Amino acid sequence: MGKGFASDNNAGIHPAILKAIGDANAGHVTGYGHDPYTEKAVELFRNEFGPDTAVFFVFNGTGANVLGLSTLTRSHHSVICAATAHIQTDECGAPEKFTGCKLLPVESTDGKITPEVVMKHIHGFDFEHHSQPRVISISQVSEMGTVYRPEEIRALADLAHRHGMFLHMDGSRISNAAVALDLPFRTFTKDCGVDVLSFGGTKNGMMLGEAVLFFNPALSRDTKYLRKQSMQLFSKMRFVSAQFIAYFENELWKSNASQANRMAKLLEAEIRRIPQIILTQKVEANGIFAIIPRHIVEPLQEKFFFYIWDEEGPEVRWMTSFDTTEEEIAAFAGLIRELL
Length: 340
Prior knowledge:
Elements lengths: L14 H10 L11 H14 L4 E5 L2 H12 L4 E6 L3 H4 L4 H6 L2 E5 L8 H4 L13 E8 L10 H13 L3 E6 L2 H8 L14 E4 L10 E5 L8 H7 L8 H11 L3 H20 L6 E2 L7 E5 L5 H7 L3 E4 L4 E5 L6 H14 L1
Parallel strand pairs: 2-3, 2-4, 4-5, 5-6
Antiparallel strand pairs: 1-7, 6-7, 8-9, 9-11, 10-11
Helix pairs in contact: 1-10, 2-10, 8-11, 11-13
């Protein structure tokens, strides 16, 4: 059986990351982030995003999103996001539970939101019967595999800031976005007006751990307390920090994401040669969405597991990873042709 195309979360740990964890496992260092590994990792993030960036490491992506949003909001606020956003569909209500805020989803055909669709929720300011709009949250890459261009991010940031709001970015696949855009991280985050970024690595070869970045450190005055309260403070933080050191050194993040994106493009090219399959989204990073004949779903899943995105189509999602190979793509496409 092949590795499958269910999720880039299903991939293992890149050997360089695993080695970094082992190398950090020597002797005693102070816990809770007061160690040389964390200092080095924070320095690397500041090299990427600017010297005034405040960096907080957490366990996982949900924790990163919750911590970022908790810092920006109080319980009478609301967060505007795409209806497909991870904070809306896949975090079991954690953002609403821990922030007390109302999520206001807006519909989108490609996973991305625009100022025009967000505007319907930009009202009710200073009206005590209405939750107060506080944050626009976007995902980069979106949950539909699409990538925001810098000008699209800037337009949303400008809209948020004109109304005294903030722009949050869920960057669980931010490395795939950087490769797709062929841009440094900072140019489509901080430089476009993003206020808070959840920076992910788990989907791109890390074992665990994410970072929450605040580009205005004044916003993060209480974040260390909220991190502890939300059970996201590592005691042995060096083992997360060491991963990020390896992740940035020699641009491992880029080579991993480049491989995942390249494999998605290769699979797209194979699928476009099969007329019975309809691609439903642009393939811009490492996700492919397609409507396939129902009778091939089960036999395909037996050999290469993947998720059904929408039963009605059925529309499926195929995700490639840093360790996906050309041979696996060829075998998968060959099986599809055989079943058809």
